[in-house]
Structure formats: structure tokens, C-alpha cells
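Example for reference:
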Amino acid sequence: MELFILFSSLITLAAFFSYLNVKFFRLPSGISLMLMGVLSALGIITAGYFSEGFTEMIREKLLLIDFSEFLLGILLSFLLFAGSLHVSVPDLRESSRSIISFATLGTLISTAAVGFALFYILPLFNQEVPILYCMLFGALISPTDPIAVMGILKKVNLSKKIETNIVGESLFNDGIGVVIFATLLKTASAGTGNFGAADIAGLFVREAFGGLLAGLAIGYAGYRLMKSIDHFQTEILISLAMVMGGYSLCHALHVSGPLAMVMAGIMTGNRGRELAMSDMTRDYLGKFWEVTDEVLNAVLFMLIGLEIVVVAFDIHYLFIGIIIALVLIGVRFFSLYVPTFLFRFKKALGNRSLLIMTWGGLRGGISVALSLSLPPSPYKNIIVSITFVVVIFSIIVQGITVEKVIKKLKS
């Protein structure tokens, strides 16, 4: 019952703040909800100076939710599937070289660069974290969050090519980032002496390619079932089964569930919509997943803001986080520039496109969830705290200004 009351409170707050945003502020919904969540959290923390019991009560309620498990185990499957339904295969095919290279090589470059940056910045603040844990931070913070990115793009008029690159890369680098993080975490847990290069490569290949193949199989199974009937209620249930049953299957098979959901969503949104659905089913299914996406996004961003209450924070972490957030912007451009230079498609995109992708590459809930999923260690708190600072900086500072930056770059 306590969990129900907690989720009821979150939905109520999200609805109230969404109303205020639509009525007065008109910011992208994700930004407004996180901003309101942060302000609410600061209000709760401030209230703790007058009534410590009140803040402690709120903290206890929030701790009822395992945020990492809630996002990675439940929300992520729905959000990635809903987001990938809108990706066009012809557009994706046209930009496949850039999307694949950004999502793979770009994420690897960013992981290494951010990891080393953190390793050398921390001693300046009398903090020390082993290089492997710094690389874990690099892996969890490098992927751009498709949930945050797509929320921003709804308000920005970009060319189809740039939009496809941003959305496609954010969907796939999310899955790749989770795989890199899982691989590094396994290495840290087993020890570098017990987990060699061949083991690392094998785990990466199994997670990534296994997830892609599982997604194709899930998407094809859903397509065949939908094609054999014409009943929109059942077809919506089939899409839900693809997400919930498919994600659970991936977990059991130890392959990447995020990548599987992206592939299943792309197949359903293209082949499924064109060949397996009537006009009525297409309309109802699209609206169902659009509403699901909006509601879950509202809960997610509200919760990210409020989670500040449960983080054991140190003022030094704020400065480190801001420095890393600024470094991350430079690393983001570098990790995009290198693939365009190596694979010679820089002319097709141009520096302006790379700058738009750099500033529009927001970090979000996935980074927070991955940091919270770290096993207990002396370094977990500092990584979680810095992650929160970077994510809040990214969504609020970059998110609020991205429209103006894009208009400036396009002029």
C-alpha cells in the first residue's frame, strides 16, 4: 500500500507540475518536471533544517523505490520501444554509417576520455578513485539519453538528416553504453586477473549482438501475430507482451534488453505498421504508446529530481560534477568528430551538425540508474553524486538553451 501511495503522489505531483508548465512556462516537459523535482527536493532538504523528521520521512518513502531497478528493469523497456516506434527505416538506412560509428566508436572514445579526465581531476579535490571505476563512470555518463533527447526534439525544427542521426545514435548508444558498463562492471567484480581480454570481448559481443538478434526475433514474432488478426485491443496487448515478455526473456538469456527493445520497436513501427495493421489499429496503437511514453516520462523526470533527497552529498562533488559536465561537452564533440573524420562523412554532416549533436546530447535517467546500480564500494557515493550533478546540468542548462543554440547555428 505504501508503494501505491508513493506512486500516486508522484503522479499527482507530475500532473500538477505539467499543468503549471503548459499553462505558464511552456518548457519541454522533461526539463520542467526535473526542474520542479529538483526545486521540490531542495525544499524538502531546507525543511529538514526546521524539522529533521519530515525530511527523514520523505527519504524513507523514496527509498522504497529501487530507482535503478525501476528504470533499468521496468521503465527503460517501455520508453525505448515507444521511442523507436517513430524511427523510419529508410532514414535510418541512409544515415546508418554515421549512427553506427557514433554509437559504437564514439561511445568507446567518450568512455575512455571521460574516465581519464575524472581520474586526473579527482586528486585536485583530494579524492582518489581507481581507474577502472573512473572508466565505469565514463561508460554510464557517455550515452546520450534518448528519452530526454526526443523530448527536446519535439520542440526544435531540425533537418531530417540531423534529427535521424541524433535520435538513432541516442537509441543505439544507450544500448551500447549499458553493454560497456556491464562489461567493465564484470571486470571490476571478477578482477582483471580473472577476466581477460577474450572474456571482455566475448561478453560484449554476446550482450550487443545477442540483444540485436533477440530484438529482431521479438519484433518478427509480434509482426506475424499482428498480421494474422484485425483486433486493435489484442494487437496493443501483443505490443505490450513484446516489451514485457521480450525484456524478461533478454534478462534470462543475458543479452542486451535495451538493444532488443530498440530493434523490436523499429520493426513494429515500420514493417508492422505498414503490413500488419489496419488504419484503426495503427491509430490506436500509436496513441496508446504516445500516452504511455508521456506518463512514464513524467514519473521518471519527477523522480530524478526528487532522488537528490536520498543522495549523501558533499559540496566538493558539486564542483567536480560541474567541471566534468563542461569536460563532457568537449569530449562529446571530439567523440563525434573522430568517427566523421575516420570514415569520411564529415562533409555530409558538417561542423554545424556536430555542434548541434554535441549540445543536444543530453544525459538523463539511464546514467543515474546505472550509477545507482553499482555494488556497494568506497567509491559509489562519489560516482552517484557526480552523476546527479552532470545529469541535472545537462538537462536543465543544455535542455533549456538547446533551442536557442540550434537557431543560432542554423542562422
Remarks:
- The first helix runs from residue 2 to 25.
- The radius of gyration is 21 Å.
- The CA atoms of residues 183 and 200 lie 6 Å apart.
